[in-house]
């Protein structure tokens, strides 16, 4: 049994975000003691044999030990006032943070809106609680979750089970006939069959690619999407009331098949979700704004209004305008809170770890760079010039991707040293790369640690087993993965360290990946390590990623002056 009393602080110093303390007592349990020790601000009061922790840490403690008998006494000043606005008979399965209750109330007041909370603030829980509340108050029959990242489907299954008493079903789920019985992902036709005979589950979960499956092209610009059309029919029949689109920043192009398919669905409640709606420029906001009905112009009209056009034939975006209008619109239709404004989380500490190439590694790098310079005119007119630099970037990480002779890597040598130090002090680390070939080499080098591993080639249903092992097994200190497969939509809060072997072009992608560890449930300071090879393209990308992030900060968070991303190919090869 755990007893928690909320009262004025005794030893802890109040903060603007937390003016109360929780006093925790329990029959000795080493697991609870270890958890409390990892809370950044906590004091053991020997005279009363209680632990004093910030009141803001109580929800995470309660949810961590949800199977224990927990009693909570005392008045929680802010939360008591907020929860009083909810129906008396509505009960949260897991204890919410104040901002999460406010998010549910905001959702009840807005039929459609952008849920844009910072990474790690529990958007998934808020959506689950909101949907369940609408079921209870309005009789809503089903909530459809569309995942922008395929592997997140099974994360949603776990989250629904954790935060609600409702059942969930992944469209197309089938089971093998031979023993041992295994769950497998069915075909597109299986998913359509499920929609024709809806399972007895409140939450229906699928991925956005499903919506374009079985599509038929009728004319040059016209498609039919049988699955999306069936979903819309269920909406019209009142079977599906709310559609949430998780990781909504993954859909940017309204003219793509999956974009057209999603836009053909018009639910009563449409809620796109993302902590990074603005990834590179204002154009990224068109899709979620149009789907929720807050933008009614065509994509061409939207582009003309917010973009300065120029370049060859005036078709290139060379700048932006009217951004104050977009900011004002976002303030009205998007709910966004930042971690530093609502949580007393320990800080992230960013560390740049520089390494120098060996003679042979530098030789490979120089050869690739020289070849690119010889073809610089072609690079300048390339549709995607940055993709042409991949070989140069790979040379800074692991030349073995490019050469069968030169396989030495300063980055990987330093990575092995740092991982040994992390494991020796019994901490955990997430290791990211953009390239699967790189992660395979990392897994080989760290095989003695039996690390977790997630890339695009790891089946979606197997990823949750890897996450669970990393989160819960004290012997699993490492998880390795690509940023694309492991950088969004999952919780890896057991990690005290996050290591990047290479930088994504987009700062928002890096922020997302960092925040797999820095989120609700984080037990201490998270150290973010970026390995940079001196005097290479690595240093230029580090600068560009920082510069590109300024536009997102300006529009979504209103914090800094706008800046234009420095992407010139000449700079990259200088």
How would you describe the overall organization of this protein?
The protein has 574 residues and is α/β, with parallel strands linked by helices. It folds into 3 domains: 74 residues, no CATH class; 256 residues, Tandem AAA-ATPase domain (Rossmann fold), CATH 3.40.50.10810; 226 residues, P-loop containing nucleotide triphosphate hydrolases (Rossmann fold), CATH 3.40.50. Helix 4 packs across helix 5, helix 6 packs across helix 20 and helix 15 packs antiparallel against helix 17. The longest helix has 21 residues.
Low-confidence stretches: 559-567
The span between the termini is 64 Å
Instruction: Give the integer mean of the pLDDT values.
Output: 86
- From the alpha-carbon coordinates, what is the Rg to the nearest angstrom? 25 Å
CATH level-3 fold name of the largest domain? Rossmann fold
β-strand percent reads 15-25%
CATH top level assignment of the largest domain: Alpha Beta
Classify the helix fraction into a percent range: 25-40%
CATH level-4 homologous superfamily of the largest domain: Tandem AAA-ATPase domain
Mass-distribution shape? globular
Number of helices: 24
How many domain units? 3
Query: How many strands in all?
Result: 24
Class per helix and strand makeup: alpha/beta
Largest sheet: 6 strands, parallel
Specify the oligomeric state: single chain
State the CATH architecture of the largest domain.
Answer: 3-Layer(aba) Sandwich
Strand order of the largest sheet: 19-24-23-20-22-21
